[in-house]
Fold each of these.
Amino acid sequence: MEPRILGRSGIAVDGMGLGCWAIGGPFWDRGGYMGYGTVDSAEAKRALQCALELGIRFFDVAGVYGCGQAETLLGEAIKAYPDVIIAAKFGYIFSQDPPAVIGKDISQKGIQTALEQSLKHLQREYIDIYQLHLFDLPLEQALEVSAILDGFQQQGLIRAYSWCNEQATTIEQFARASHASVIPILLNVLEGNKDLLTLCETLELGMIIRRPLGMGLLTGKIQVGHVFDSQDMRIRFKWNLEHGKQAQQLEQLQSIQELLTQGGRTLAQGALAWLWAINPNIVPIPGFKTVKQVEENVAAMQFGALPAVTLLEIEQILKGANAK
């Protein structure tokens, strides 16, 4: 796929990156596990190497993912690949043994410490996109953080920055009042706010699409009767595949499965193709734990975007399903 520029950051990336949350493994936060269950570190290393060999050069990670584990694995893998683009996140403070969130810190000293820690884990001298990870922060405090990040930019420690926030009005105010140039957006064929894409186009903000596969639901590998790892956050979030939101999403997915899998695509590849079809400038970052998942995700780029007529058919089917 053709490279695209991440908004006014000027940073060029390919049509897809990979998200590294899952390879960090589980960590404890406020009474429950976060993460996608236990992980085989050896397989995660092989998966990272596979991604690099297949040409992936954009990775999204956070200090809190596995409480340092995801960054450490990624840093070791990319040592021989100086062209890799990294989007990292900060805001949480944590212990590593056992891996657990112990608070938040957006003070000058706290952010400096987090940045130094991430650079050490990633074995890099700078981070390409540094992301404020606290969704519920008041705008005034986020703008105070942006002033600190401006300083890091001037020092060459980061190239660009963003704030993980899904409120369009807040994002617009933040982007207009700061030098933020990229926005992570929760979006997939079954959920999310497509209006944020229009806002990003208007403000020239790069669009990194998180949760493109619906936390695994859009892969087709999670069905009624699926048993999650005891340390999987989907248990914490009370996923129910027989009743409620996830059950309804499974029904919706079944109704559009034939359209998503046209041309020999897998469901996951079709979900990624839907994203590229709605906006050619977005960059989805599907997660992974295994070599097989990496190979499937990367192969989606060979198929490219869904045809416009298919996009319209999917929209009509889902609109009809939501109207019931």
Amino acid sequence: MALTVQEARARLDRLPRAALGFFPTPLGRLDRLSDELGISLYIKRDDCSGVNLFGGNKVRKLEYLLGQALRDGATHAITYGATQSNHAMETAWACRRLGIQPILYLTAVVPPRPEELRANLLLDRILGAEIHIVSIEPGEIEADAEARSFEMGAARAAELSAAGSRCADIPMGGASPLGSVGFAAAMVELRAQADALGLRFARIYHSTGTGGTMAGLHAGRAMLGMDDTQIISVAASPKDEAAYLDKVCALTRSALELIGSDAAPDRDAMRVRLDQWQPGYEQPSAAGSAAIRLLARTEGLFVDPVYTGKALAGLLADVGRGDIRPGESVLFWHTGGATALFAEPEILGNVT
């Protein structure tokens, strides 16, 4: 049975949560871009999630993950990502906000220049996070270096535990059942805003990486009975589609269980788009760069070359193919990450 917004909020309020963000984030119509595309396009501004200038979708997950860490008495928190990881940076500032020591294990997908720190890695340094750069060694792929970073993090956590500290493990991208609860709550927030405006979105587009945001959106969709809304998740990196959907479906189910909803995930309704991530993760695409320019020059808003630019490119491609009907109400969920506009040239590409 579908829950009302009020019922869903009551169940979410039972879980530990640390206040970190500025919620609800703004929801507004992109009038000029809507006119150009011939659709009714709205944007959900999670790039404004706070608590400083560098918000993003991870704030929602961290409210629950670090809320639990505080309840458990954590003094330190370890997480993982690439050197320009939005999640790692957001974890670092969230930890500082809550009095927890952040520890980051960062895989050098694009090797940083120590003499010229940029974007998120610069912010990590300013925040005073304990940073460990994990190189991709000859003969390794990115996944091998990530696996080593997890081993290094586990060893550091054991060392801290032996010294009497308590260390929280924050999964990469916040992709866990508890982290996904944050985006189930986001769907409740969106439903309340849309109801107030008399809106129903036929489609929601967003960027997906580790899958936690996607799972949370589907958990919210299921518990609120939003069967008439399709969620299109545009991948920022290569995926094995079947294995990825299995993972997201399992996360969705576990998030719903944590919330106390008897709704079930609808795997058949899950759509992951694998046509925009090329030429690779943290590698710019021509379509993504064009999407960055279009949004900036019609609305004065910025998306990034790694995640949101490619997600917007997926939406624009669907408009071009006629998959979105003229006048259809569509939502683009801006998950943040514009700091990548100030990252290494290899990540930025040609956006001018």
